[in-house]
Amino acid sequence: MNSSEPVPSGKTVYLKDYAPPSYIIEKTELDVDIYKGETFVLARLQFQCLDERPQALTLDGEALELLDIAIDGKALDSTQYRCDHRGLTLHNPPERFVLTTRVRILPEQNTSLEGLYRSRTIYCTQCEAEGFRKITYYLDRPDVMSDFITRVSADKNECPILLSNGNKIDGGDLDGGRHFATWHDPHKKPCYLFALVAGDLAKVEDRFRTASGREVTLQIFVEEKDLDKCDHAMSSLKNAMRWDEQVYGREYDLDIFMIVAVDDFNMGAMENKGLNIFNTSCVLAKPETTTDAGFQRVEGVVAHEYFHNWSGNRVTCRDWFQLSLKEGFTVFRDAEFSADMGSRTVKRVEDVAVLRTLQFAEDAGPMAHPIRPASYMEISNFYTLTIYEKGAEVVRMLANLLGPADFRKATDLYFERHDGQAVTTEEFVQAMEDASGRDLTQFKRWYNQAGTPRLSVTDEYDQEQRRYSLTIRQSTPATPECAEKLAFHIPVAMGLLGEAGELALKLADESLDDLPEDNTHRVLELTETEQTFVFTDIPEKPVPSLLRGFSAPVKLDYQYSRADLATLALHDSDGFNRYEACQKLALATIQDAMLAYQQDTLAEFVPDSTLVQVYRLLLEDNSLDQAMLALMLNLPSEAYIAEEQEVIDPVAIHFARRQVAAYVGSELAELFRLRVSAYDPTREYRAQSDDIALRSMKNAALGYLMLLPTAEDLHLCLNQLARANNMTDEMAALTALVCCEDNTAQEQARDALTAFYQKWQDEPLVVNQWLALQARNPIPGALERVQALLQHPAYDGNNPNKIRSVISVFCNNNPLNFHTGTADEPDAGYRFLAEQILQLDSKNPQIAARLITPLTRWRRYTGDRGQAMRLQLQRLADQPGLSPDSYEIVSKSLN
Ligand code: TRP
Ligand code: ZN
């Protein structure tokens, strides 16, 4: 039976209902025979009952056509089992038995990109979270861990490469031009880590010698045409392997580690044991086609998936409520790795920017959930910024609270204690407690309370007593799962700035003997709703530098004057807070402009001069890291400004921000022009952080100049576009040109876009950047341009990267156009999105559900806009047969 009947929507799974499996599967033997248009999967599963024998055992299975079924070699008759669109139920199963099933599946028709599917010419799998059930009947849950032997067969010409997890133990030719390969994975694993690949792939090979002296073969498989884009992924992999040995004492544990790149992939990459499968966008890189951000993303994702080998695979999750156990921890690990490979502060600033625009928005919306959720409808919807990024922040707070030595003791204990097990976040924190002796009872509230805490800080200086006191109040807004929040344990890293620099700190209850070595820095541990910290012997009224390094994922309110912010931006010893002071100063300036916009006086508006004064001093300071400088000069994004508004006015935000940017650009034009003209566009490209830094500052300067360009500026931009030898500079120039409202520039931009496509049409990843640039271009008419792009031969409505480049980018990164639609239909952007979601929902529900995000924020927008957005959500809700993925998001958003 081939089941594509609609699955009933709205079934919720609860953490409190968790029960261990009644059976385990000791051994899993699969024969996967791939033919044109259909694949046969023969599974031999060794079951063992763990406790009392149940009356029935249900295996998960979806979109499978059952051909044969037997227990211990004896075919079952129809009274002994039942099959429906969710799975297979065995009545009265024995204590211990071998189940044999044979099913037929249709990978060529699988557009969900989950289970076994075909991407261009390559057969590949994606099993996390619950995709294995689309390959064979199984106990598709992470706490069932099995020994896997996989035999793959296919046509030898079509699929010369046949891969699965572990080590290859057999292979050879078969009749009819076919061949096979047999793989054995010696490590027991849950089925979500299963992988299989078959296709015509070329490979790059290298070796790595582990700390204990074992030789590991490293292979990256790509299409022949991409062989020249694998070097960066390979060196990133070797760096990650070395780093995990040095920083966590973790070695790789198989003789071979393989990466396969495919074009059609729902996410970035997948950590299948010994056989990672990657979105091409996260593996392939070369200077001519890949921007600096692209290079860094490859490094980060390669490391992330590699690090999962320990944080995820050797120690895995008991159930999907524990997803952040592996994802939060692994994001923390990859962020630290990237910090060590490049600039630590730059990496931190970039990550925090993502967290507090996108994750904070999620935490304030209808899908808010704690990093360990208590319930879900569709687990695919919970691969969120909260699970990943906020989860990483929680691990970071633990690492900082424990300090490097105890944190390392704790991770050693965690890996040793739970090797080969499927565990919970409780057990992770328990290892932290056991290794450090700290009581983390209150800290654990970060795992089960959603929402972003807000800290309100007030201070008082007593000149006579030379005492300075800081009072911090915490409160967390209600979220759907919980209205009343208990106080969090919040580490607030801080220092105090005086006229001449950082002040020596002594808290009233500290004795002189136990003052730390660095006496200008403290971590205040907030555990109450309100607490006052008193510093003694403070000679002057200081400017507080609070939440250094973004020591906790919270919002912080303190009434800084603009002069205070200038002091912090120029003099704070904490790089993150220097950046933060610039953001606050710029935000205040933009908020002034928004007020002017609302009073219709934006055209005459002259910004407060502090911002430009600070920027000027920073630009003249030659000691600054140029990448930090570029970030400090970067005005807060429209999304961040929106997140700071009670009611969002995307139009005011856009024009106010633009006005401030144009002012900065014209006031500092000379300095910016110097940066751009001093740069030699033909200098040799290196993806090293100091070179990246130079490019990012120079391109930031170009961006400012091109807001109101002189003929000379336009010439500089066109010159860079023509002569750039790398995609970072080429794309920066093209972007500046395309987004420039100047008429001459607009004409040039049209030709430049055409020429760029001509030049790069055979490089899909470059074409994606070309599509994304047009989708986020704020110049009016974007919706019409986007609709035209959907008809362009370069577009492919089944490819997630293309969908993201055009539809997601337009709806998320072009707020002005998305929220204003077309001249006669202001809601056209919303209707466009709903139509795209409906078209995609039955083909690829995971991607369709992700597209809904911008509409879920409807409550934050002014009356008409909010209602128009809601109307489109309602339209989705009314769609018969909507996928459970989309249904969950739509129904929770309308509630
Ligand atoms: N575990 C993967 C990672 O974070 C995430 C992932 C890859 C995924 N593909 C997926 C999650 C498909 C859900 C569906 O590295
Ligand atoms: Zn991950």
Summarize model confidence as the mean pLDDT: 97
Largest sheet: 8 strands, mixed
Class by SSE composition: alpha+beta
Bin the helical content. 40-55%
Task: Indicate the proportion of strand residues.
Answer: 15-25%
The tally of helices reads: 27
Number of strands: 32
Strand order of the largest sheet: 6-5-9-3-2-12-15-14
Q: Radius of gyration, Cα only, in angstroms?
A: 28 Å
Low-confidence stretches: 1-8
Shape: globular
User: Which molecules other than protein and nucleic acid are bound?
Assistant: tryptophan, zinc ion
| CA-CA gap between termini | 37 Å
Domain Peptidase M1 alanyl aminopeptidase C-terminal: 563-895
GO molecular function, one term: alanyl aminopeptidase activity
Keywords: Aminopeptidase, Hydrolase, Metal-binding, Metalloprotease, Protease, Zinc
Cofactor: Zn(2+)
Overview of this structure, please?
The two termini are 37 Å apart. It contains 27 helices and 32 strands. A hairpin with a 2-residue loop joins β2 (23-35) and β3 (38-49). It is α+β, with helices and mostly antiparallel strands. Mean pLDDT is 97; it is low at 1-8. α2 crosses α3, α9 crosses α13 (650-667) and α19 runs parallel beside α21 (800-813). Strands 6-5-9-3-2-12-15-14 form an eight-stranded mixed sheet, with no helix packed on it. Strands 17-18-19-21-20 form a five-stranded mixed sheet, with helices on one face. The protein is globular and about 90 Å long. The structure holds tryptophan and zinc ion (ZN). The site of zinc ion has 4 residues, from α3.
